[in-house]
Amino acid sequence: MNEPRKRPDAEGRRQAIDISDFVYAATGARVRRLTMPDGSHWFPAVDVCKELGHSNSRKALADHVPDDHRETLETVTGGYGLSIPAGRGWRRDLNLISLQGLILLVNACTKPACMPFKLWVAEVIETVQREGSYTLEKAEVQPAEPGAPVAYAMPEQVAEAIVRLEAHNLRLDEELAKGQRESIELQKATLAVQQAMVRAMERIADRLDGLPLPRPLPGADPVVPPTTEALLADWRQRLSVTADVWAVAVVIAPVLAEKGELREPLESIAARTGLSVHRVNECLRLLRKHACIRSRGGTEDGAPVYVLNQG
């Protein structure tokens, strides 16, 4: 039969059943726990209620746990001169229940997984009524050293509950791992499709940039250059403008509206916008992709040349 781990409390007493194993057999979960200097254990009521399926923790406490076995975190820790544990989950007004309160909530639970533990509790009570006490059997394995604590055999119902719940958790872990692997594969496939679409759009943009600008027909009205405001309004409709793209757009739109082309080094635009040269280049590339501007080669000193993309 399985042997429980044994840990001493603050006064040196040995627990016949390790508290973690005991609570796990009762609730099917490793719930948070505070152990006080006198060896008493307190548990967040919301954690226990969640694991046992009590949807309304306040009602569950009011119906099944007496006042003596529930307190706020501030009251419990303050009684021992301790500070509130660190972490967002530990609030001063957090409701805690004692180990007896936890057992009362388990007895009130209707989940089939709690039945072996509840049967063992009933067996303990019946044995105490019949014989006046209940004693765990000592394990067959004797202590390795003289004076070592005596090991006790874990009750069969508790051991079976732990084994069954551990197996259930293993199955859930396997299902979770499988779901995570499938999700990763789906993300990879989606990313590959997105990258292919981006490359296709870049190729289309590059080909469009190589096409000559249409010339006005003889006798046709000359093309009226757009104003800066009209350019920016048009660009806002063409793409989702981020703060960085908008900063670049505000700098280059007046130049394009006035001169019809932009011959400014990237370093100059970066200095005026406060962005890096790399980020400026990415913003200009985005404006190209959405047909706001088009590339017309470069100047002798290497600065790119952009013009408005007008049909």
Describe, in plain words, how this protein is organized in 3D.
There is one protein chain. The protein has 311 residues and is an alpha+beta fold. The chain folds into 2 domains: 19-141 and 148-176, no CATH class; 228-308, Orthogonal Bundle (Arc Repressor Mutant, subunit A). The chain is 52% helix and 8% strand. It contains 11 helices and 7 strands. The chain has helices at residues 19-27, 45-52, 57-64, 73-78, 99-107, 115-131, 156-210, 228-238, 243-259, 266-273, 277-289; strands at residues 34-35, 41-44, 70-72, 95-98, 261-262, 293-298, 304-308. The strands form 2 sheets. It has a 4-stranded antiparallel β-sheet with strand order 1-2-4-3. The protein has a 3-stranded antiparallel β-sheet with strand order 5-7-6. A hairpin with a 5-residue loop joins strand 1 and strand 2. Helix 9 (243-259) crosses helix 10 (266-273). The longest helix has 55 residues, at 156-210. The radius of gyration is 36 Å and the shape is elongated. 20% of the residues are buried. Residues 1-13 have low confidence and may be disordered.
